[in-house]
What we know:
It comes from Adineta steineri. By secondary structure, this protein is of the alpha+beta class. It has seven helices and eight strands, in the order H-H-H-H-E-E-E-E-E-E-H-E-E-H-H. The longest helix is centred in the middle third of the chain and has 10 residues, at 52-61.
Amino acid sequence: MFDKSDFKTRSFDILPIVRNFFKQPTGERNISDIDEIRRCLADIKPFSRLAIPLQNHILQEAWYECYTEGCTIIRQGDCAACFYIILSGSACVTYKRITDNHIQIIDILERGCTFGEKGIMTNSRQIFTITSKTKLELLVLWKDDFKAIYMGNDRYCSADDLKFL
Length: 165
């Protein structure tokens, strides 16, 4: 008998090889596993849609962060400092109205989603608060690395690539 729960989306845990790779200091990463790391990140469009040289930049400069449920990653009003790609888990995007302090849930982000880029691109403060809804595993890039990869004049990605952000 057909059971639709067999086809229900399950949470995705990243492989230990990916986690361990991004926990290594940037100058000491073992690049012998780089093709396997690329395969593990193939479904993450902000990574896989980039040309190989830009993927290599991410593989060298990004680092791994993990948050338990209920942790605030970005707070509304903070200066933009980092760009985040969700590897596993989910995060809640909220907006707090200044007039009456009402907090509104805007979206739920999951694997492959990004956040933090709008503040970097516009050189402004964060518009939303991002909180981990579940255990959340992230790839993180500093603002300058994000700009070099996604916004540089000599970048290899097209305007279509940027619309995924």
